[in-house]
Each structure stands twice: as structure tokens, then as C-alpha cells.
Design goal:
Blueprint (H helix, E strand, L loop, with lengths): L2 H19 L21 H23 L10 E5 L5 H9 L3 E6 L2 H9 L4 E3 L12 E7 L8 H11 E13 L3 H15 L1 E8 L1 H19 L4 H10 L6 H8 L3 E9 L3
Parallel strand pairs: 1-2, 1-4, 2-3, 4-5
Antiparallel strand pairs: 5-7, 6-7
Helix pairs in contact: 1-4, 2-3, 5-6
Bound molecules: S-adenosylmethionine (SAM).
Length: about 260
């Protein structure tokens, strides 16, 4: 099996598991500062932390796209890698835009459609939309999965309308300063520029650590032969990824990009 087939199958399994277990936000989650996290959070709370990643990202986009004296009234938005549509649920109610989305996973596409969203099964590197069709394009924790990041960024740039914004949120096994430099270089090669960059590592680390008991309980339902494979993805205690969140060698960032020629 090729690595891209394994990567695709992995998300089919994750989304079916998420549907069965009620895990709708398949992301690290950005627990809001000041929230008193319970010792053992519920699935609903994990989903709420996952939605907070979208709320934080939207606040960044709105701050650069819609100054208070020029609020956006309408337009189109596109999410890349929408998963089960939990973030789309937030975006469609909290923003004035009309949202489309794509995901590579068949399970994710069907679940999101069933939840009432307009989703196509497509890949970031070949978006089935016209040039300059969207005022906003967002991707929450799918950027790291793009098989050809440069080509995908070029596609995001192609479908972005003049004056529009791209919002990205992602984690990475590196420091935020290195990541910022990488984004600037990738933008320069794709006709984009980075308008803002936010280090969200602390909020993500809090969500990971506080959510550990709930995720460990959910992981017990994963068949034994698959559990080891997904333990690291879930950042469960004892895994390399869990250690990296604790020792600060994993960062979480969000960025807002615009066309370089704007
Ligand atoms: C970590 S999940 C995040 C899902 C959702 N954004 C959320 O926060 O709940 C990543 C998603 O990206 C999708 N994905 C991976 N590679 C992709 C690609 N090249 N184009 C579009 N979607 C992709 C996966 O199928 C998966 O649903």
C-alpha cells in the first residue's frame, strides 16, 4: 500500500470512530484562556474546545478583514479539510458568509453533508472551484496533511478573491519562530503574504493535557490492534507526542494570509 492510501484510510477510520463515539471536532482544540477545565471533561466539552480553534481563527480573520468601520455583510467562504463539519457548524452560524467545504475523506464528506453542510469530496491540491470565488478560505489542522503543500497553497491563492483572507491553524513539531519563517517562505513562493501570525501553543497544550482522561477513555473503544497506532495521534500519556506537548517541542499556530498583490 502506498503512503497516500494509508493516510487516506487512516482518516476514514478516524471519522467513522468519531461518528460512533460522538467526537465531532477532530482537532487538538484551543481551550479558551480562563476556562476552568474539569478534571474529566465530557465529549461535549472536547468538542467545544475543538470549536474554540475555529472561533480563535475567525477572530484573527475578522480583525484583518473586517475593520469595525467596514464590517463584511456577505460573501463566500471555503473550508479545506472540514472533517465532520463541527467547525463548519460554527462558521455558518457565527459569520456572515455562505460556506462550502472539501474533504478528502468519503466518511467525513458524507457525515458533514448529513449534518446539512455543502461539502465536496476533493483534495486541497485540485480544488473544484472557479478562480477568485471565495472571500475567505480556512484550513484547521489539515495543512500538515497536504501531500504537496506548495501546490495546495497555490490552489488556495487561486480560489481567493482580491481583498480576501486565508486563515490557517495547525500544530507542528518545531518552535513557532521556525514555523513563522517557513510560512513566510511558502507564501512568497505562492503569491501570498502573511498578515498575522499567532502562537497558540499554550492554549493547545492546556486542551491536550486537560482532555487526556476523556481521550484515554475514548481510546479504550478502539480495537486493540489499532489502538497503538492511534495513541500517538491522540497524544495519550506515554506517547512521544504527549511528551513533546509537555516539553514545548510541539507548537500550535494560526496565521492570516492575503494575496501578495492586494
Ligand atoms: C485533523 S482533521 C481536521 C478536521 C476538521 N478541520 C476539524 O478541525 O475537526 C484533518 C482533515 O483533513 C482532511 N484532509 C487530509 N488531507 C487533505 C487534502 N489534501 N485535502 C482536503 N482534505 C484533506 C482529512 O480527511 C481530515 O478530515
Amino acid at each position: 500500500m502506498t503512503s497516500s492510501l494509508v493516510a487516506w484510510l487512516r482518516y476514514e477510520v478516524i471519522h467513522v470512530w468519531g461518528l460512533v463515539m460522538g467526537m465531532r471536532a477532530i482537532n487538538v482544540g484551543n481551550l479558551d484562556a480562563g476556562v476552568d477545565a474539569p478534571a474529566v471533561p465530557t465529549r461535549a466539552q472536547l468538542n467545544q474546545w475543538g470549536r474554540a480553534a475555529y472561533a480563535n481563527l475567525w477572530a484573527d480573520i475578522a480583525a484583518t478583514l473586517m475593520p469595525p468601520d467596514r464590517p463584511m455583510q456577505s460573501g463566500r467562504g471555503l473550508e479545506i479539510g472540514c472533517g465532520q463539519g463541527e467547525g463548519l457548524g460554527y462558521l455558518t452560524t457565527a459569520t456572515p458568509l455562505d460556506w462550502d467545504a472539501v474533504d478528502l475523506s468519503l466518511a467525513a464528506t458524507l457525515i458533514s453533508r448529513w449534518r446539512g453542510h455543502r461539502v465536496r469530496r476533493a483534495a486541497s491540491q485540485a480544488l473544484p472551484y472557479a478562480d477568485a470565488a471565495f472571500q475567505v478560505v480556512v484550513a484547521v489542522e489539515s495543512v500538515m496533511l497536504f501531500p504537496d503543500a506548495q501546490r495546495s497553497l497555490g490552489e488556495l491563492r487561486r480560489v481567493l478573491a482580491p481583498g480576501g483572507r486565508i486563515g490557517l491553524a495547525e500544530f507542528r513539531q518545531a518552535g513557532c519562530a521556525d514555523t513563522r519563517a517557513l510560512i513566510d517562505a511558502a507564501c512568497a513562493a505562492s503569491g501570498l503574504r502573511c498578515l498575522s501570525f499567532v502562537d497558540r501553543t499554550e492554549a493547545a497544550r492546556r486542551a491536550i493535557i486537560h482532555g487526556e482522561p476523556a481521550r484515554a477513555a475514548l481510546a479504550r473503544w478502539i480495537p486493540g490492534f489499532l489502538r497503538r497506532h492511534f495513541a500517538d495521534t491522540l497524544s495519550l500519556e506515554g506517547t512521544a507526542r504527549h511528551r513533546r506537548w509537555l516539553d514545548g517541542s510541539h507548537c500550535y499556530w494560526s496565521a492570516v494570509l492575503a494575496r501578495a498583490d492586494d
